[in-house]
Structures are given as C-alpha cells and as structure tokens.
C-alpha cells in the first residue's frame, strides 16, 4: 500500500462513520500501548446507554505523535 493510499483510507474513516447518524470525535494523547485499551474501555463505559444507541467506537491516529482519535458514532 502506498503512503497516499494509506492516507486516503485514514481520511475516509470519520466520513464513513457519519453514515451511522452522528459522530463525536475526540483527540487524546496516550502511550502507544494504551490505544487499543482506550477503545475497549470506552465500549464498556458507554454500554450503559443501551444497545442500539451507540453503533461504533473506534480509535485511529498519529502513532508517531502519541495522538489517538477516538470516535463514537450512532444515534443520540
């Protein structure tokens, strides 16, 4: 995969998630080894809102800058 193709894929993530309705986007700074754990933690925390309200929680970001974009998408 070329760097341009990877960047295009990365840039399309927020737009794709908006198809679920609404998306909240947050930037957080975390050590690399905490990126996946932060998404799992948010899934657990937000599950209290009930099924069907939040359709996706994902994380992606700038690994070199320790910045993770957390996105919560769904019907609110």
Q: Total strand count, please?
A: 3
- What is the succession of H and E elements? HEHEE
Overall, the morphology is flat
Could you give a short account of the major beta sheet?
Answer: 3 strands, antiparallel
What's the architecture in CATH terms? Answer: 2-Layer Sandwich
Q: Can you identify the CATH class?
A: Alpha Beta
Radius of gyration, whole Å: 13 Å
Domain FAD-binding oxidoreductase/transferase type 4 C-terminal: 3-70
Enzyme class: oxidoreductase
GO cellular component, one term: mitochondrion
Organism: Amphibalanus amphitrite
Question: Overview of this structure, please?
Answer:
This protein is an alpha+beta fold and 76 residues long. The chain is built from two helices and three strands; from the N terminus they run αβαββ. A hairpin with a 4-residue loop joins strand 2 (54-62) and strand 3. The longest helix is centred in the first third of the chain and has 15 residues, at 3-17. The chain is flat and about 40 Å long. The model has no long low-confidence stretch (mean pLDDT 76). Keywords: FAD, Flavoprotein, Oxidoreductase. Its EC number is 1.1.99.39. InterPro entries: FAD-bd_oxidored_4_C (IPR004113), FAD-linked_Oxase-like_C (IPR016164), FAD-oxidored/transferase_4 (IPR051264). Its cofactor is FAD.
List keywords for this structure.
76 residues, alpha+beta, 3-stranded antiparallel beta sheet, 33% strand, flat, oxidoreductase, D-2-hydroxyglutarate dehydrogenase, mitochondrial, FAD, FAD-oxidored/transferase_4
